[in-house]
Design brief:
- There is one protein chain.
- The chain is of the alpha+beta class and 65 residues long.
- It has one domain: Alpha-Beta Plaits (2-Layer Sandwich), CATH 3.30.70.
- Strands 1-3-2 form a three-stranded antiparallel sheet.
- The longest helix is centred in the first third of the chain and has 13 residues.
- The relative contact order is 0.31.
- The mean pLDDT is 91.
């Protein structure tokens, strides 16, 4: 089961977190929220498998988000 571990303010932030998590071997999905906004002003949910939530949170905290 996929679990939301972070909500990013824009595509750039979501991509940065996604890269950091993937570098640590964590599977990541991004889910667009607010499809009506144009450009990169949308929010994104960052999802990981439930078994990797704690590790993902630790990585995100280390990135100071």
């Amino acid at each position: 089961m996929w679990t939301v571990v972070y909500m990013a303010q824009d595509r750039e932030m979501a991509a940065k977190i996604q890269r950091a998590l993937e570098e640590e071997g964590i599977l990541v999905k991004l889910k667009l929220i607010g499809k009506e906004a144009k450009g990169d002003d949308n929010c994104y949910e960052i999802l990981v498998p439930a078994a990797e939530v704690e590790q993902a949170h630790n990585i995100i905290i280390d990135l100071e988000f």
